[in-house]
Each structure stands twice: as structure tokens, then as C-alpha cells.
Amino acid sequence: MPGAQVITPSAHTPDAPDPSEALTVDPALVKRAVKAAALGNAMEWFDFGVYSYIAVTLGKVFFPSGNPTAQLLSTFGAFAAAFLVRPLGGLVFGPLGDRVGRQKVLAVTMIMMAAGTFAIGLIPSYASIGVAAPLLLLVARLVQGFSTGGEYAGASTFIAEYAPDKRRGFLGSWLEFGTLAGYIAGAGLVTVMTALLSSDDLLSWGWRIPFLIAGPMGAIGLYLRLRLEETPAFAAETEKAKSERPKVPLREMITGQWRTLLLCVGLVLVFNVTDYMLLSYMPSYLTSELKYDETHGLLVVLGVMALMMVVQPFAGALSDRVGRRPVIAAGCVGFLLLSVPALLLIRQGSLFAIALGMGALGLLLVCFTSAMPAALPALFPTRVRYGSLSVGFNVSVSLFGGTTPLVVTALIGATGNVMMPAYYMMAAAVIGGVAVWFMTESAGRPLPGSPPQH
Questions:
Q1: Distances (CA, A) of 201 to 54, 213, 222, 363
Q2: Residue 341 — very low, low, confident or very high, per pLDDT cuts 50/70/90?
Q3: Which tens digits make up the pLDDT trace of 129-172?
Q4: How far apart are CA 277 and CA 57, in angstroms?
């Protein structure tokens, strides 16, 4: 393949690479691959930030019941619907990525994500077309959710299969750097618009602007992804077959990998429960439980995310030096020991205490955001990596990650215990710690089923 020098592999089993093989990838190609993959993740979370921060306005546009609570619930109901179809998207795009290639599928998911987000900005209001407006919003969200089902697993697989073995943690960390950048950009844009536009302008036309921006962003992302070649690992796998790759049965992706899938679900659980707790639920917690000013609460969260962005690449590089397991384990131990003290600090109420508590949780979360993009693809062999990771990741996110705000709110309502967010993170940390105990260290080693890469 152009841009990558591949030494002809000798015959060996699919999941046990011959140490005499070596793949050398052009560094320029690696940089392009990281940028293209990270931009897709940034776009997904740009939409997430926009939708979360402009939810009240969207409720008035699409669900004008006159009841603000009902409007907000309906808006977040449409938002949550995307999580329901994520596993379905993973079941479709994952096996397809293992059959036809990572690059082609990632181009398709980029188109669908951009189209779904852009379409929201074009939907007429409820006042214009009635009940068709919320139905179209729901369809657009389902398209977004379906495409997202193939995005993270594909993007992390793409970077992992391009990265040299000794730099996989550092390069993979830029995927979550894109996540943070996208969320900050989306939330920051809405915050600026809210400050500059009147309520009437925001309600009539201003809310459309962030969604319409997805069109140009998607075009740029698609251009970057179409310029990429297939990953060296997948190209080598195809070269070994010497013919059209056989279809990988779904049974092999799931039942053939069930132990590893359980590890994947456990790792993704602690990763996403803590992620959604800190970045999605805590602003609402500050407002509803502590009666904290909403604007200040959102700014604190954005500040924590900016801090995480600064630390992210360094933590990724650290995972290359000391290993994925120690870094992820440190995050689990940290959340187990510090969740209660951090939440007590946050509940103290002063800006300094809230920033200190949130900052501590954010730095612990970096242990996951920096190491997971390299650790998760290394769980599975090349021929089923995209499909198995898509299934494990999306099932875990849909069942545990995306439901975190709803479950914690319900637990606080049922028990009256306002410390429930800390206990929930501690429970997730225990599950994650068990998964880390059983996982194999992958830092500095070839991906399963792939030859060494440098």
C-alpha cells in the first residue's frame, strides 16, 4: 500500500503474529489518521454539547406544551432515543468494518453524523408544521445515534491500527482530546449566542446556527477521511487472505469473544459512568440540588474540560511508559477513594471548593480518557476487532453510561441521599477495577492478530 512499507508476512495463525514480521507506517499518514478520527469524535460531542446547552430553547421550538418541565423532558427524550439505536448501529457498522475496511465505514458514519445534525437545523418549528416537527427531530436523532454506534469503536480501532506499538497510548489519547474540544466548542458557542442574542431571536432563528455548522464540519471531516488509506493491520490481514475476505460470523464476534466482551463492558462502564456523571450530570446537580447559578456551573464544567485537554496527551504518553493497566487502575482507585471527599467539597458551595472538587474528578477521569482508546482495541484480534468492540462498547454505553443522569436523579429522589452521585461512581470504580485485574497489559506490544508495528 502507498505510504506504508509492509514486509511480506510469513504464514501464521490469524491471532498469533509472527515476530519476524514488521510493519512500518509513514509518520505523516499516522498524523492524518489521528486528525481524521479525532475530528469525527469532536463532531459527535459538538452536537452533544449544543443539544445539552440549548435544550430549553429546543423544548419551546419542538414541544410547545406550555409546561417547561414537559418540554425539557420531551427534548431529552428525543436525545435519549439516540442511545437506544447505538447498539444497532454497532451491530451493522462493526462487522462491516471488519469485512470491507475501517476507512470506508468511517467515511459513511461521518456523512450520517453530519447529515443528522445538519438536518436538525433545517426542521421547521412545531408552530409551522405541527406534530411533524418533533417526529422529524426524533428521526434526525435516530440517524445520529445509529451512526455513532459505528464511530467510536471505528475511530479508536483506526488510530490503534495506524499507531506504532510504543506510541499507541499517546496517539490514541487525541481521540478523547477531540471529544473534549468538540464539547467545549458546542457548549461555548451556545453560551456566546445566549449572551449575544435576545430570547426572541434565539427562539426564532438563532438556535439553528450551531446545528447548521455541522454541514461544513462534516465536509471537512469527510475530506480528511477519504484521503486516508486503509490501516496497515487491516491491509496486512487482507494480504494474507489473498482473496476477498470471508464474512466474519456474528457468532464469532460475540460468543467467540464473550470473556473479552465482558472485560470490555466493565472497562467501558467505569469510563462512561464517570464521564457522563462529571460532564453531563454535574451541571444539573449544581443547579437542582445546590441551587447554584446555572451559568457559573456550566463555566466550571467547561473549565474542568479545558484542564483535562491540557493533561490528556501527557497521560496518554504515560500509559505508553508505565502501561495501560496502572493508569486505568489509578483512575479506579482514585474514584473509589476520592468520590465522597470531592462531592463534599462540591456541596460546600463556594466557587473555589466546587472548582477543586470538580477538578479532582476531572483529573481522575483523564486516567480513562487517555488510556482507554488504546486499551479497548487491543482487547480483540484484528479480524473481529471493529465488530466486537462496537458491540461491547455500545451495549455498555447504552445500558450504563447514557443512563447515568437519569438513574442518579431517580436514586436521589427515591432515597433522599444527595451523596448518591459519589456512591454510583464508587460502584462503577469497583467494576472497572475488577476488569482491570483480569485484562492483559497491551502497552508496547503488537495488537492481537497483527504483526509488530513501528
A1: 13, 18, 32, 38
A2: very high
A3: 888 888 888 888 888 889 888 888 889 999 999 999 999 999 99
A4: 23
Q: Report d(CA 136, CA 130) in Å as an integer.
A: 11
Burial class (CB in 10 A: 0-12, 13-18, 19+), 449: buried
d(CA 82, CA 229) in angstroms, rounded, equals 30
Three-state DSSP class for residue 193:
helix
Closest CA to 274 of 158, 422, 383, 110: 422
Bridge partners (DSSP) of residue 196 are none
Residues across the chain: 454
- Rounded to 5 degrees, what angle do the CA atoms 402, 370, 383 make? 80
CA atoms within 13 A of residue 19's CA, in its CB half-sphere: 1
CB atoms inside a 10 Å sphere around CB 435: 22
pTM score: 0.86
**CA atoms within 13 Å, Cβ hemisphere of 452:** 9
What average pLDDT is seen over the chain? Answer: 83
Contact 383, 248 (CB under 8 A): yes
Q: What is the pLDDT of residues 68-112, one digit of tens each?
A: 666 666 666 766 777 788 889 988 998 888 888 888 898 898 888
Q: Give me the amino acid identity at 12.
A: H
**What is the distance between the alpha carbons of residues 329 and 14, in angstroms, rounded to a whole number?**
30
User: What span, in angstroms and rounded, lies between the C-alpha atoms of 192 and 47?
Assistant: 16
